[in-house]
Amino acid sequence: MQIGLLGKTNVGKSTFFSAATQTTAQIGNYPFTTIEPNMGIAYVKTDCACKHFAIPHTNPMCINGIRYIAIKLIDVAGLVPGAHEGKGLGNKFLDDARTSEVLIHVIDASGSTDIQGQSVPVGTHDPLEDVKFVEEEFDQWMKQILQREWQKLARELESKSGKVIQAIAQRFSGLGIDEYDVESVLHNLNLQSKKPHDWSEDDLALFVKTLRKRTKPIVIAANKSDLCHELSILDDLKKTHPTIACSAETELLLRKAAKNGIIEYLPGEKSFKIKNGMNLNPPQQKALELAEKVMSKLGGTGVQQTLDYACFDLLKLIAVFPVEDETKLSNKNGEVLPDAKLLRLGATARDLAKSIHQDLAKGFLFAIDAKTKQRVGAEHQLKNGDVLKIVSSMSRG
Q1: Which terminus of the chain is more solvent-facing, meaning fewer CB atoms within 10 Å of its CB: N or C?
Q2: Which sign, positive or negative, has the C-alpha torsion 13, 14, 15, 16?
Q3: CA 378, 102, 272, 52: dihedral to nearest 10 degrees?
Q4: What distance in Å separates the CA atoms of residue 308 and residue 45, rounded to the nearest whole number?
Q5: Number of structural domains found in the chain
Q6: Same domain for 11 and 96?
Q7: Is there a domain that residue 64 lies in?
Q8: Would you say the C-alpha torsion 205, 206, 209, 212 has a positive or negative sign?
Q9: What is the chain's pLDDT, residue by residue, as a tens digit (397 residues)?
Q10: Which domain holds residue 195?
């Protein structure tokens, strides 16, 4: 599971990345072997299955009944006008973005950064321009992919209507786009009945825009919202895009303060508590007082909320807990609820097996639902919070 973090210079993208990938404690071994310099580990949070069973356990990734699940967060290369033509770090940006399943676009909601990333007075730049700019660059890039030798392809497909979906999906396979995505968009736009040779420029543009929205959904992290005179300025954005008011700077401050033992704070909470007996110096006192005001205005810092929204609202992911002992809810070492897997809504028991190891899926026999104690088959659809034991004729290899 990978989230791409977009944003121009000086909007706080790097601060958001730093805040999201800071942890208040070492809450688990990183499940990813190689992390690039622009790659970090962040966490999304959901209810732990221990709540349903009222079972005590010591998994460090469960705090007060809330399960923290690791995801990859990639700080996507900066974007400049003409990125789709390879200008600036355009190719790097698009390569990073294509490998992400969902995107967070960090903008300066206060309007104090112009389109080039230069500082301007608060409220003098419309952040909606930045949103449109990024989407248009992405759409232009996807359109270029589709248009490569388009007329030649259209002629070849003239008498092979069933191959159109295959051919288009092949063009976009590097973006994680499959035939089902292509077919759904063609159907929704009523383009299935239209021969590719007859597609207009508008047809092409609308197709890639709709495909991008479906396969690379974006949530807006309206950073620096604490600097806005009125939060109503976000209303126009919210009409067309999922938007969450944020203060990445405040989140980074709080996570560092918690890591240093100054405050009690968990990501996503709406308040924090200064630890008893803590003697703060004047700068620390002032910084935490400002943080309180920001959280009161925004209802938190918005950083964790944005990560959670990207996974659970945009991608519709569910958390499923695989175990090896359905009675003790443990693995072979006796660790209770040792793991949590993020799967797409509609995922099956076999999909869960595959997420653990391909061999488990190949030799899948059945699964046992720990809540109902019933056997379920390979195509049994999973629900958020399910706990399953996979029974397979093959080991993990």
Answers
A1: C
A2: positive
A3: -10
A4: 7
A5: 3
A6: yes
A7: yes
A8: negative
A9: 899 998 888 889 989 999 999 854 444 444 444 456 588 999 999 999 999 998 888 889 999 999 999 999 998 876 666 655 665 555 666 677 778 899 999 999 998 888 877 888 888 888 888 899 888 888 888 888 888 767 777 777 776 655 888 888 888 888 888 999 999 999 999 988 888 888 888 999 999 999 999 999 999 999 999 998 777 878 888 998 999 999 999 999 999 999 999 999 999 999 999 999 888 999 999 999 999 999 999 999 999 999 999 999 999 999 999 999 999 999 999 999 999 999 999 999 999 999 999 999 999 999 999 999 999 999 999 999 999 999 999 876 5
A10: 139-214
* Residue 101 domain flag: yes
pTM for this entry:
0.88
CB atoms within 10 A of CB 284: 17
Distances from the Cα of 183 to the Cα of 139, 212, 297, 309, angstroms: 18, 14, 44, 27
- Residues 120, 160, single domain; the answer is no
Tokens of 79: 């974007």
Q: Are residues 119 and 12 in the same domain?
A: yes
Residues 302 and 329 in one domain: no
Q: Are residues 130 and 163 in the same domain?
A: no
Question: What string of H, E and C letters represents the secondary structure of the chain?
Answer: CEEEEECCCCCCHHHHHHHHCCCCCCCCCCCCCCCCCCEEEEEEEEECCHHHHCCCCCCCCEECCEEEEEEEEEECCCCCCCHHHCCCCHHHHHHHHHCCCEEEEEEECCCCECCCCCECCCCCCCHHHHHHHHHHHHHHHHHHHHHCCHHHHHHHCCCCHHHHHHHHHHHCHHHCCCHHHHHHHHHHCCCCCCCHHHCCHHHHHHHHHHHHHHHCCEEEEEECHHHCCCHHHHHHHHHHCCEEECCHHHHHHHHHHHHCCCEECCCCCCCCEECCCCCCCHHHHHHHHHHHHHHHHHCCCCHHHHHHHHHHHHCCEEEEEEECECCCCECCCCCECCCCEEEECCCEHHHHHHHHCHHHHHCEEEEEECCCCCEECCCCECCCCCEEEEEECCCCC
